[in-house]
Design brief:
CATH topology of the largest domain: Endonuclease, Chain A
Largest sheet: 15 strands, mixed
Radius of gyration: 23 Å
Number of strands: 17
CATH superfamily of the largest domain: Endonuclease Chain A
CATH architecture of the largest domain: 2-Layer Sandwich
CATH class of the largest domain: Alpha Beta
Oligomer: single chain
Length: about 475
């Protein structure tokens, strides 16, 4: 009997170390950043079972077999549609500003299409005004309304929008709604899914959280886009979830969320429609492409309007493109670089680019919320402050609520706005979208908004930061250790 137990225990010990060795080899074979690989290896060797389970659950980008097959199958038809679109030469820009040219060339080589011109953009900074404007557009919709959001929380002004959305569906407008399962859990626990479906809206719960599929798909892979498309002509995107900020997370102690949305008319609605069509097919298996190209594209003069490049990320989209776009934008800066983000946990490459910009004389400002709803991100982001301050980067802490706006402005000319946080999840994992706009007038508008944020912020002095308690530094380093995994 003792021999039997010895053999069994030996078998389990051998299997245990074999599993550790296999996971170690898998980590080493994956071409990931060294800090990320080292963090995973340390976790696995310090807490083997916990580390292995965590890595198999969160360490790799698993979309799931069914979705991965759909993502692969959708590209032939999408590529054909893009080929037809590229024949509409009049909507594509050929000249870019000096600061924007490298970024737009990168996107052309990675995505296959150039930036589109002839768009009209309006920046919306007040959430109530955004919802009111969106309701008016929904009430005038004639053909289709397509939405995707990370969070939809019923209540307040959002309920008025939901009523307008359902009324549109009942009068014959084709209405579709993609909502992330984790972010919109309150919505899916409410009565709204049923009454919306009864009204004729196709409501789809995206990336359902299911512990039974823990090892088959990353449960922390989220649909983080915020987009609305109306009649293939009007589009919205930006940082705002479908929430009423007067009611949203009021118990978090960070104040109301401050967001920025863009309302657009023109060809950019079609390029955003391609992104939505891909998301819809990956999740439902149903093909949904925008109408035939070159139809009603130019509501404005061809030689006027904003030039925009849509940059999308997530499984099935070009790898690391948003990260590459950010790096390109930062290295293109010659005079001024201003960034706003609620969550700041940059990659080593992005941190180095920002510091290098400041060291070569660029006026670099980063505006972050003083208070944050994520304790881990709040401490991890502070671990980068010393290096940034020593390089000459100005760090402003916003005191007017949780600044949720994601924006980058380079030399007053090149703007990036959208859903992308400057953290690992947005840069490497989630479904995200950002707009690159090459336009001096738009840059001026964004600059005014960022300056308004600065008036409600406090500049962090390097001497003040050096006097913080020693235990703060310890906590910062602990969470910095986990920064590649956030």
């Amino acid at each position: 009997m003792s021999l039997f137990y010895s053999v069994v225990s030996g078998f389990f010990v051998f299997g245990y170390w074999l599993l550790i060795a296999a996971v170690t080899l898998r980590i080493l074979m994956k071409r990931r950043a060294v800090p990320s690989a080292m963090a995973w290896l340390l976790v696995i060797y310090i807490l083997p079972l916990v580390g292995i389970i965590a890595y198999l659950s969160f360490g790799e980008l698993h979309l799931g077999k069914k979705r991965a097959e759909r993502a692969k199958a959708m590209w032939p038809s999408t590529a054909r549609w893009l080929t037809e679109l590229k024949e509409c030469r009049r909507i594509f820009a050929s000249d870019y500003s000096e600061v924007a040219r490298p970024l737009f060339q990168l996107c052309y080589h990675r995505q296959g299409i150039e930036g589109v011109k002839g768009n009209h953009l309006q920046l919306l900074t007040a959430s109530n005004a955004t919802l009111e404007t969106l309701i008016l557009d929904i009430e005038q919709a004639q053909h289709n309304i397509d939405m995707v959001f990370y969070i939809w929380q019923p209540g307040g002004q959002v309920d008025l929008l939901a009523q307008a959305f359902m009324a549109a569906a009942m009068r014959g407008v084709k209405c579709r709604l993609l909502l992330d399962s984790a972010g919109s859990r309150q919505f899916f626990r409410s009565h709204y899914p049923n009454i919306m479906r009864t009204a004729g809206i196709e409501v789809v719960e995206v990336l359902k959280v299911n512990l039974l599929r823990l090892f088959f798909r990353r449960i922390d892979l989220r649909q983080h886009r915020k987009m609305v498309l109306i009649d293939n002509h009007i589009a919205y995107t930006g940082s705002m979830n479908m929430v009423d900020p007067r009611l949203f997370k009021q118990d978090a102690g960070v104040g109301q969320w401050v967001d920025l949305m863009a309302r657009m008319e023109g060809p950019v609605a079609t390029t955003l429609g391609i992104v939505y069509a891909c998301d819809w097919e990956i999740e439902t298996g149903k093909r949904l492409l925008p109408p035939s190209p070159c139809v009603n594209f130019m509501p404005f003069e061809q030689e006027h309007g904003h030039t925009i490049q849509v940059i999308a990320s997530g499984p099935g989209f070009p790898d690391e493109l948003i990260h590459q776009a950010l790096l390109t934008a930062v290295y293109s800066a010659r005079q001024q670089l201003t960034m706003t983000t609620p969550y700041f946990v940059p990659s080593d490459d992005l941190l180095h680019a920002i510091c290098t910009a400041a060291l070569r004389g660029v006026e670099v400002s980063i505006i972050l919320p003083r208070d944050n709803d994520s304790m881990m991100v709040r401490w991890a982001s502070r671990a980068f402050f010393s290096e940034l301050l020593e390089a000459g980067v100005k760090i402003y802490q916003f005191e007017g609520g949780l600044l949720h706006t994601k924006s980058v402005l380079v030399d007053g000319q090149l703007s990036l706005i959208g859903t992308v946080n400057l953290d690992m999840r947005s840069l490497w994992l989630n479904f995200e979208v950002t707009l690159a706009i090459d336009d001096n007038d738009f840059g001026h508008d964004l600059d005014k908004i960022q300056r308004d944020y600065l008036t409600r912020s406090k500049l962090l002095a390097i001497k003040q930061w050096a006097k913080r308690p020693f235990w703060h530094r310890i906590v910062e380093r602990i969470f910095y250790f986990f920064s590649p995994l956030l």
